[in-house]
Write a structure and sequence with these properties.
By secondary structure, the protein is an alpha+beta fold. The protein has 1 helix and 7 strands.
């Protein structure tokens, strides 16, 4: 009889240990399980850094972050606001440093200009304002910077 109690005790103890091990393994697996859906990398807030420029036919953008593929466009200044686009960068994406926008004519000393980030509509060419749109910052404003072309020394 004592042998039967001992055997029953071992069976119950083994069952409890198995249940505990399975439970611990299930909880561990659930906590470390990767999402089956790949997550997109976090989108950075678009940003532009441009300083006043010397008289030349190039515009230097010191730093830019594009939240999606697009262009940095050079616009005329009309009463302090961006006017017509006169040139743009090549297609860009992500973080960029020292981007040069080539302009067909020399920008005159004392003139003001604007650079803006425009998203590509998928065609790989600048079609603003018909297809491409402006990239917006966290306050839902277009990412644009004004600069002045300084007079020649």
């Amino acid at each position: 009889m004592n042998h039967m109690k001992y055997r029953t005790f071992l069976i119950i103890l083994t069952a409890v240990i198995v249940v505990l091990l399975v439970s611990v393994g299930f909880v561990y697996q659930k906590q470390n399980k990767q999402s089956p859906i790949p997550l997109a990398p976090p989108v950075q807030n678009p940003e532009l850094v441009v300083r006043d420029q010397p008289v030349t036919n190039d515009v230097l953008i010191e730093h830019a972050i594009l939240s999606k593929p697009g262009f940095i466009a050079l616009h005329t200044d009309v009463e302090g606001k961006p006017g017509d686009m006169v040139a743009h960068s090549d297609l860009l994406d992500g973080t960029q440093t020292y981007v040069i926008i080539r302009v067909s004519k020399t920008l005159p000393g004392g003139s003001s200009w604007h650079v803006m980030i425009q998203s590509d509509d998928g065609e790989g060419k600048d079609t603003f304002p018909v297809g491409d749109s402006l990239q917006l910052d966290t306050s839902r404003q277009p990412v644009a910077r004004k600069f002045t072309v300084t007079a020649s020394p």
